[in-house]
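Many groups now describe folds with learned vocabularies. In that spirit, our science desk offers one protein's residues alongside their backbone shape tokens.
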Amino acid sequence: MTITLWGRSTSSNVQKVRWALGELDLAYEHILVGGRYGGNTTADYLAMNPNGLVPTLRDGDLTVWESHAIVRYLACTYGAGSLWPIDSRQRAIVDQWTDWTATTFGPAWIRVFWQVVRTPKEKQDAVAIAAAIVEAEKFLRIMDARLAASAFLGGESLTYADVVAGVGMYRWTTMPIARTHFDNVSRWHAGLQQRQAYRDCVEVDYSELWARQAF
């Protein structure tokens, strides 16, 4: 089947999908949409993704949107035994951390990113930024405790839980903020940085997003 991915490379949600595709060594066509490229409000795009957001993925006659749904689909379809654990009990733990990223960790680090990077300097609120960092680090502490007990979030090998959570670490560690060091999170992140697909798809220059609230 032919896989097509729509979305801009500087979107952290698109990066989750691109990283998963890279880990699975899947060939795909990448169509740049959203942000400075536009195209996400056309009738054709909205027919695929009524939200007008990125990413959107098509695999043959299947079209999927929502980054975590796409990553799960790719892992299940092409990564059984690697990104997708075969054992349902292990997979429950992977799903636990995947959903935790969607509902808890992801919104926390993104809140800091929006206030520090996406908000123009003259509009930034130092008190709100400090509070957002404290909140994000509360969840990083939870992650650190988990990574003290296992090599990866889902267990002893890389899974889709690490893909969706690991994307945020590049931005977290490159934002100009004072941050707490967490030994286990740092070890895990350093391991992700050794992976070629992570370097290619996640460690992407995001300078175009500085002070850009409209993207």
In short: The longest strand covers residues 3-6. The chain has a mean pLDDT of 97. Residues 88-118 form the longest helix (31 residues). The two ends are 32 Å apart (CA to CA).
